[in-house]
Amino acid sequence: MAQLIDILLYKLAIWKKLSASSSRVLSIKNIFSFIVYAAFAVGAFFFARIVTWYLLEYIRIGLFLFHRFIAIVLFVFFLTVSAGNIVVSFSTLYRSPEMSFLLSRPVPYATIFLVKFLDNFFYSSGTLFLASFAVLLGYGSYFGMPWYFYPTILFGVMVPYMLLAASLAVIVLLAVMKLAAVVNFRVLIACVVAGYFLQIAAYFSLTSPVALVKEVMRYYPFVNVYYGDLDPAVTRFLPNYWFAQVLYFWIIGFSAGAASNAAALILTSLGALVVAVLLGGRFFYETWLTSISLQFQTRRARTASLPFFHFERESRFRPHVEAVLKKELWLFLRDPSQWIHAAVLGGLLLVFLASVGSMQLKVETPDLRAVIYIVIFVFNAFLLASIALRFAFPMVSLEGQAYWSLRSAPIAASTMYWIKYAATLSFLVLLGVAIWFGTNIPYRGIPLLLASSFVGILAIAGAGASLNFGMGAAYANFTEKNPIRIASSQGATMTFLLTMVLLAAIVGIYFYPIVSLFVTHYTGRPVPVSAMRFAVGVVVTIAAVVSIVSHVAGLRALKNDL
Prior knowledge:
By secondary structure, this protein is mainly α. 79% of the residues lie in helices and 0% in strands.
């Protein structure tokens, strides 16, 4: 215990040293961050409350179906947290320079593993806790829940839920690193990605949202009855099911059902944490040595070949453009945490596109069709925003202490800025177009919807790239080498919240025209062309303003000294 306290005090001292500053600029940034956090919390509160009201009172899907939708969202959230923790844990456990120092101390490996695991968990979960609490307030206020409902759900259900996802992720990581000594590392990563594919495909094949809606709506207006027999047996052993059941049973006043599902979630979470710590104490040091060996093997393989776009090969770009682009490419490829995370996100994206692209949304009402489409659009936008935060925000900070060489090089800082931004924007726009094409296949018969959503995705991609890249320059941290920790910093969190506000504004602007468009399309009424054009114009204007302001802030920051 004393050794654990010593390490925690050491981490606290480093945090205080890095965060200690009395500069006026930092004070202004902190005030601005507080305003953004508060605005996001208020927006998330009203968003959750309005969505709950809309689905239960306007669409009237009933409590059972509403909480099954929550279970689906929680399943995606669980896999996202799990996949993210694999990448974050790999970076901090096997690529952090601090680990060499800690492993040289007379401290048990299990203690070091536990401290770093909890460090990752709490460092990357602050924003999620804030968002969860705000959404929980909106959800609970609609139902008039008592004050103790909120801390109970947040700390008694949400924290164990996220801790379970993180514990399972680190167990998978330990297994991968253990097998990496005898199996090709890239093959293992491919197997992990394929495992996530299979989980998603199996879950949605068992719990089709469209099929569930059709089954429940057969009994309309008796939609508030408990249709638990429609749940596949295997899903009743999943943590997202327990979470949703806790909320549902609490709302209907069945306290025993809520308590039993909460107990199952807490006990499973504690069990997974204990297993993770035991495996860490047994295999962490061994797998850490394996990671060093893999790093040297990767370097030898890279220097033994002369692939396309290598520094020694000529290209058609101008010399300064070529140098920056090649540097960005090889900095990305040499860091396993970068391309592993990109592979996981790319795999999840392909599964999502394949499932949505083949989906036949044969539901009963145009309003519900519109809601399903808007949910898909929101997920697309959120995915783009998450990728922009993860890969665009750290780009300037990853220059590191070598940033001074760029300032002294025969290339303007603004030129370097625009080259890096152009690469980021191109990637996000291509990704946005692919997402738009894959998710709009079932809506080929509504041209106005296709055109407006295409412009919306382009606006989100452009504004998201600008906001994350510009704010990443304004909040650059040249002392941090870990891109994941950069993307989880205070500046990144504030940028993500601003992006969420932007997405909420765009969805709010699109909401009424899209619902009207679905109603007119399926009822034969006049199409609301003018309303949709006005919405598109407002969205493009907002995206342009956000992009301009972000670039002004980013370019001004490049003139500052280190």
